[in-house]
Amino acid sequence: MPELPEVETTRRGIEPWISGQVIRGWQVRNPALRWPVDIPEQLRGCTIEAVSRRGKYILLHANPGTLLLHLGMSGSLRILAPETPALKHDHVDLQLGNGRILRLNDPRRFGSVLFQPGAEPYLHPLLADLGVEPLGNEFNGDYLHRASRRRKVAVKNFIMDSKVVVGVGNIYAAESLFTAGIRPGVAAGRVTRQSYQKLAAAIVEVLARSVRQGGTTLRDFVGSDGNPGYFKQQLNVYGRQGLPCKVCAGGLKLKILGQRSTVYCPKCQT
């Protein structure tokens, strides 16, 4: 699944090609994504003034409102020539004034293309209750400590809660907890302020490093065949159950938390 670094990499990859471009039209081959595709006629002829991100949503800001794009479980966006043949899972094309198209490919159809009218895109129901951005100024250990008081949920599930902090998916939660030396199953309310300071710093480090890695794939968003251009992760624990820890050489353990598997090191994470 595309996570925050992949979505941010996508945003950076498409932004130079679509920011400042007029929306000439669109083609919807399959409107039945997670929700019905919603591109109102009033967007035709409008200029995309900015391209931003909120959580895992890419926002295309125009004068009458904002398009919210989500890549779902397996989606990708590409900048293509308009004559590029559509593949089986190419569901939506946005036709731009520079002669290019922005194409959404989504094999599992869990993505979305939705519209929020007006100048306040963050009022959309899908954005209104989102937590802080982990790469933003409001995110730090003190914030996590305050938000976690009296919370009995496992700390891994706590930092994956989008109402607490957005974009910390399964991979990045596991890796951040390893970096901070915190076991994923401990109750969020029992984690100390000092440990949350380490955890917040680890989340920022892991996500920022992944975004930097993703920078090498920016070229893949232009003229590609539609396959996701996401980057390989340099992982310490995720998906490595039974293998030796890269730090202490001890065996990594698998644990199920909230119906998700998580891998951790019993020696390095206490």
Question: How does this model look, in words?
Answer:
- The chain has 270 residues and is α+β, with helices and mostly antiparallel strands.
- It folds into two domains: 4-128, MutM-like, N-terminal (N-terminal domain of MutM-like DNA repair proteins, Alpha-Beta Barrel); 141-264, Helicase, Ruva Protein, domain 3 (Orthogonal Bundle).
- It has six helices and ten strands, in the order αββββββββαααααββ.
- The strands form three sheets. It has a four-stranded antiparallel beta sheet with strand order 1-6-7-5, covered by helices on one side. Strands 2-3-4-8 form a four-stranded antiparallel beta sheet, with helices on one face.
- Helix 1 (4-18) packs across helix 6 (193-214) and helix 3 crosses helix 6.
- The model has no long low-confidence stretch (mean pLDDT 92).
Name the features.
single chain, N-terminal domain of MutM-like DNA repair proteins, 20% strand, alpha+beta, Helicase, Ruva Protein, domain 3, 2 domains, four-stranded antiparallel sheet, 270 residues
Provide a concise account of the structure shown.
Helix 3 (141-148) crosses helix 6 (193-214). This protein is 24% helix and 20% strand. It has 2 domains: 4-128, N-terminal domain of MutM-like DNA repair proteins (Alpha-Beta Barrel); 141-264, Orthogonal Bundle (Helicase, Ruva Protein, domain 3), CATH 1.10.8.
